[in-house]
Write a structure and sequence with these properties.
The complex is a heterodimer of chains A (313) and B (285). Chain A has 313 residues and is mainly alpha-helical. Chain A has two domains: 74 residues, no CATH class; 218 residues, MetI-like fold (Orthogonal Bundle). Helices cover 79% and strands 0% of the residues of chain A. Chain A has twelve helices and no strands. Chain B is mainly alpha-helical and 285 residues long. In chain B, helix 5 runs parallel beside helix 12. Chain B is elongated and about 75 Å long. The chains are: A mainly alpha (313), B mainly alpha (285). At the A-B interface, helix 1, helix 6, helix 7, helix 10 and helix 11 of A face helix 7, helix 10, helix 11 and helix 12 of B.
Amino acid sequence: MNNLNYIIKRLLQMIPVLFIVTVIVFLLMRLIPGDPAALMLGEKASNEAIEALRIKMGLDKSLFTQFFIFFKDLLHFDLGDSIRYSVPVADLLKERIPVTVLLTIVSTFFTIIISMPLGYLAGIKKDKPTDQVIRILALLGLSIPSFWIALVLLLIFGVKFQLFPVSGWGITWADHLRSLILPGITQAIGVSAIVVRNLRNNVVDIKNSDYVDYAKSKGLSNKIIRERHIIRNALIPTTTLLSLKIAWMLGGSVIIETVFTLPGVGALLVNGIYSRDYSIVQGVVIIFVLVVQVINLITDVIYSILDPRVKLQ
Amino acid sequence: MNTNSNKDKLDKKRIPLWKRSPAFTIGSIIILCIFIIAFFPGIFTSINPTEINAKELLKAPSPQHLFGTDHLGRDVYARVIWGTRVDLAVGIFAMLIPFIVGTALGLISGYYGGKIDAILMRILDIFMAFPYMVLAIAIVAVIGAGITGLYISMWLLGWKEYTRLVRSEVLVVKNMEYIQAVKVLGYSDGRILLRHILPNVLSSSIVYGASDIVMCMIAGASLSFLGLGVQAPTPEWGAIISGGKSFLSTAWWITVFPGLLMAITGLGFSLLGDGLSDILRTKSH
C-alpha cells in the first residue's frame, strides 16, 4: 500500500517536470534562427509556399497561442506532422519505438552476460592479476567511443567474416534479431565497463563486511557464503545502476542506430535534425524524457523491493 | 594515534609515487605524450593534413603514408596527429567551464541552502530528465552544427554532476567544528567558502573531472561523427572516422587508426583519474 502511495506521488511529481520539459523543448525549437517554414522547404521555395506552410504550422499565431495549441495536441498524443515524411510524428514513433526497445533489451542482455561474471570475478580476486586485467579492460571500455567499437565490430564480423549484416534491419524476426546482435554488443561494452567497476567494488566491500566474517566463523562453506551472502547483496546496488544505465542507453541509441542504420527512434532524431524536420525532433525528445522518467521510477521501486531496508517516501 | 599517523607519513615518503599508484604514473606518461603531440604536431609529421592529392586516393598504409590515405588522398597519419589538438582541446575546454561553474553552484547551493538550493536543485532535476546525447543534439540543432554549438551544448549540460558532488560534500563539511569556529571569528562568507570549504570539497570534483575529460572527448567526437560538431576539413578524430565509414570494406585504415589514438588518450585520462582518486583518498584518510 505504501509502495502504491509512493508510486502515485512520484507520478504526480512527474507532471511538472514533463510540463517544463515540454516548454523548454517548444522554446528551443522556436529559438532556431530563421523561419522554420522557409528552412524546411529549402532555398528554392516560393514565398506563397512558405506562407502556406507557415499558416499550416500555425506560425502566424502568437507564441503563446502556438504553445497552447501544441500542448493541447500533445495531450491527445498528437505531436504534429512530419514535413519530410508527410505523416503524423506519432505514427513515425509508433513504427520506430519497437526497434529501439528491442535494441535496449538485447543490449541489456549482453551487458548482464558480460559484466556480471567479470565484476564478480574481479571483486573476489581483488588485486590479483585477474582483477588487474579486468579493471584495465573496464577502463578501456569507458575510454573508447561507441561509434568506433561499432565500426570495428562491423569490420571484423560484418565485412571480414560476414556473420552479421553490415546495415539495415531485415524483414523477418530472425533478420531483426541477427541485425541487433552487433549493436547490442556495442552498447553493452560501454555500459558493462561502468557496471563491472560498480559490482567489483560492491563485492570487495561485502567480502570485508562483518556478516561475511560471521558466516565464516559459523563454518559455512565458501560456496554458500558466496552464493547466499556475497552475490545476492552485491547485486542490489548493481541492479539499480543497471536500470539507470538503461535510460542512458536510450541516449546512446542515437549513435548506435545511426551507425548500424537501424530504423529506431534515435536514428529518427538524427534524421530529423539533418532534414530540419523540427516536429520530429520535438516529438522524439519529449518521448525520450517521458521514458527516462518512467525508468527512474521503476528503478526506485525495484530498489526498495530488493533491499527492504530502503523505504520509499 | 599520533605516532601512528607519523609512521604513515614516513611510509608514504618511502614508497615512491609510481609504486603507490602505478595507474597515476602510467596515465600521466600517456597524457604527457598526447600533450606533446597536440602542441608540436610538426615533430611527428611534415605532411599537410588538409592537402588533397588526387593521385593517392584510398592508399593502404605504407612507409610513405603510415596510416594510409583517405578518399581525397589526404594522409590519415597527418590528420590523426593534427586532430590530437582538436580533440584534446574539446575534452579539456568542454570539461573546464562546467567544472568551474558546477563547483561554484554546488558551493553556493550547499552552503546557503534555502531558496537558492531549492531552485538550483529543481533546475538540476529538469536537466537530469533528458538523456545526455539527446539534449546535446537538440541544442546543437538550435545553435547550428559546428564547434561553437558543440561547446555551448556541452557547457550547458556538463555542470550538474559537479554541482551534485560538491553540494553533498559541502552539506557535510559546513557542520564541522572548524567551520563553526571560523564563523565565530566573523570571517565573511566568501572567505569561508573559498579558503575553508572549497579546499576540502575540491578533490571529488577533480577526480570526477579527470574522467569527465574522457566523456567530453567522446561526446564531442560523437557529435562530430554525426556531422554536428567539428566541420570538414579540420582534422578531428570523430570526423575522420565518420569519413572512413563509407569505405569500411575497402579502406579500414581511415576508421581504425584515429579510434586507436582516441582509445589510448581516453585510457590515459581514465588511469589518471583512477590514480588521483587513490592518492587523494589515502591523503584524506
